Amino acid sequence: MPETPSRSKATRNDVAALAGVSTAVVSYVVNNGPKRVAEETAIRVRQAIEMLDYRPNAVARSLKTGSIKTLGLVIPDGKNPYFMAVSTAVEAAARQRGYVVLSASSNLDPDVESAHLNVFEARGVDGVLLSSCVQGAALTGQAIPGLPMVFLDRSTAAGINTVGVESRAGAFDAVQHLIEHGRQRIGLIIGEDEYVTGDRDRISGWRDALGAAGLPEGPVEFGDFSLSGGYSAGVRMFARSDRPDGLFVSSDQQSIGVLRAAWEAGMRIPADVALVSFDGIAESAFTCPALTTVQQPIGQLAEAAVDLVLRTAQQSSEIAHLRFSGDLAVRESCGCVN
C-alpha cells in the first residue's frame, strides 16, 4: 500500500487513495451498502480507515440517509438501580446495531419528561424509548405524532408500541410461593399511583393468587418506588394490628427499605414475615436476608425495545405489545434456604 498521507484530519479521498479504490467503494464499506464490496477490498478499506484514523462525517451521512443513528431514552428515576440497568442494557443493544443513545431522567416529573421528549424530537433522533412516570390513560398523551416511540414497562398503550414483562403472572408466582410456605395473611406494598390509576398487573397477580387459594386480601400500604418509600410503607405495615405473615413488595428498591423497617420493628424476615419482591436488581442478592424476587429479563427487554423502535422508524405501521416472562429467583427472604 502507498505511504500514509500526512494530514491532521483524514478524508474519504485519503482513505480511497490509500486503499487504491474509489470514494464510492469507501462509502459502501462505511455504510455497509448499498452495493456489495469484495471481502479482500473491504479489508483494505478498513485497514486504511484504521491507519488514517478516519471518522466519517455523521452530519453529512445523516443528510444522505435520513438517519442520525441516535435514539433517545427517558427513564423516571436515574438513581434507581433497576432503571440504571435498563439504561445500560438499552445502550448495549443500540451500540450492537450501530446506534448511540441519548439518555435523560424525568426525576418523576411529567413536565420534565415532556420537555425531554420535545428536545429529542427537535434533535431529530431516530426514535425514543420511554419509561414514563405518567400513569393511566394520560400515558398516551406523552406520545409525539411522527416520532417513533416504544413505551417500556407497560403492558398496553393505545396506538403505541410497548415492551414489558408479564407482571401479572410474575406477581402470581411470587405470592403463590408465599402461600406454599404456609402464609395465610399476605399483604401488599405498592406505589399509590400504580394502585389507583396505573398499570395494575402486579396488583392483579397478588389478588389472583390469593383468590385461587381461597385467602382474603391482606393489608395494603403505599410508598413510592424508592428506599425511603419502601421504608415508610414498611414502618406503617409493621405497626398495624393486622400485620401480615407474608408480604409481596412491588419493587426491590422498596423491599430494601422494608427490610430496614422490619429490623427496627423487631420483625424477623422470614420467620415472622416472609417477603417476596419484584425486579431482580443486582443488589437484591446482597441484602440480609437475600431477596426472593421476580427477575426481569432486562437484556431481552432492551433488545426487543430497540429492534421495535427501529422497525417503527422504518415506516412500520403495525403496533406491537411484546411481553417477556420473569423468573422467580428463590433466595432467603421467603423462607427458603439456599
From TrEMBL:
Gene3D superfamilies per record: 3.40.50.2300, lambda repressor-like DNA-binding domains
Residues covered by the HTH lacI-type domain: 10-65
Alphabetized PANTHER family for the sequence: HTH-TYPE TRANSCRIPTIONAL REGULATOR GALS, LACI-RELATED TRANSCRIPTIONAL REPRESSOR
Keyword set, alphabetical order: DNA-binding, Transcription, Transcription regulation
InterPro entries named among the record's database cross-references: HTH_LacI, LacI/GalR-like_sensor, Lambda_DNA-bd_dom_sf, Peripla_BP_I
Keyword Manganese: no
Cross-referenced Pfam families: LacI (PF00356), Peripla_BP_3 (PF13377)
CDD domains documented for this protein: HTH_LacI, PBP1_LacI_sugar_binding-like
Name under which the protein is recorded: LacI family transcriptional regulator
